[in-house]
Amino acid sequence: MVKFVSLATLVCALSVTAVSAKEMQDHNQMMNHGDGHLMDMDGGMVMGQNTDTLPGGCDKITATKEITVHAGHKYSEKFPGTMFAFDQQEFQFEPCTKLTVHFINEDDIRHQWMMHGLPKYLYPKGMFHLEVSGPGKVSGTLILPPGDKTYLVHCDIAQHMEKGMKAQLKVGKGSEDLPSIPGVTAAIFPDDYSGRPYDPKLDAPAPSTPVAAPVVAAAPAPVAAVDDSIVSGTTVVGLAIGFIAAPWLAKRFKGMSAGEIIATVLEQVAHGVGYVMQLIGKLIKMVSGKNVIALPDK
């Protein structure tokens, strides 16, 4: 009788182990729908896969890397106020790296590892996307663009990013740190876990600092007509810069069509404008933070 119970217990344990192993599905036989879009009927998906096309400005693949990223509720336990998280919140690689991501979902719900801001001429919608419905693993490959830039990585399922499933991936030195990355950067709107009761006096916004009356500047003098010699000199300087920059531009946009070049230039211009606006915002904060000296009454 004891032997029978022991045998039954062993069979039950082996059955449970087999069921558990079966629950974690490896999605490696997905159908190719073109444009780097792979998927199967069991909830595995890869979008934006690129294994061999170099982004403009990359002469060669500088490195080949693989990472394994786990996603699930248990990884949020170290971040108070969150519900989901990746096991890593920051990644960094050389420009033009061929990167393979093995994404493992450990929850019984759908999770994603989605990277935004990639060049749209090469990656549809400007993103690389891994997705698994329920416990399972899916793998995908992309080639990172050149330059120093920080890319957002998150789960796009409703409220998953807001509940902690967010990270950043830096190419090269990165462009800047993204806000509200759990354990990496401060939250824009930090939660209060002090347990103190609400106090209107403490929680009221700080009073605004009085600002002195603006000084009206005198009207500018009429501008004289532009000398033709200045225009011609500017033209010469512009042509010289163009000849000097031509080899670099040819290398940067090698292999791109006219539409791809325009898209890349617009993306760089938008990035530059954003950087300038950040500088202006910082200057405004610095100026507004200083004490304003009131003018004496007459």
Describe the structure.
This is Copper oxidase. Keywords: Signal. Residues 1-21 form the signal peptide. It comes from Methylomonas fluvii. The protein is an alpha+beta fold and 298 residues long. Helices cover 28% and strands 23% of the residues. Among the domains are: 28-171, Cupredoxins -  blue copper proteins (Immunoglobulin-like, Sandwich), CATH 2.60.40.420; 230-289, no CATH class. It has an eight-stranded mixed sheet, with no helix packed on it. A five-stranded mixed sheet has the order 1-11-8-5-6. Residues 11-22 have low confidence and may be disordered.
Order of helices and strands: HEEEEEEEEEEEEEHHH
The structural class is: alpha+beta
Can you tell me the CATH topology of the domain at 28-171? Immunoglobulin-like
What is the number of E strands?
A: 13
Give the oligomeric state: single chain
For the record, the CATH class of the domain at 28-171 is Mainly Beta
Main sheet characteristics = 8 strands, mixed
The Cα radius of gyration reads 28 Å
Strand content: 15-25%
Shape: flat
Give the number of helices: 4
CATH H-level superfamily of the domain at 28-171: Cupredoxins -  blue copper proteins
- Spatial gap, N to C terminus: 108 Å
User: Architecture of the domain at 28-171, CATH level 2?
Assistant: Sandwich
Low-confidence spans: 11-22
Q: Mean pLDDT, as a whole number?
A: 80
The order of strands across the largest sheet is: 2-3-4-10-9-12-13-7
The portion of residues assigned to helices is: 25-40%
Protein name: Copper oxidase
InterPro entries: Cupredoxin (IPR008972)
Keywords: Signal
Signal peptide: 1-21
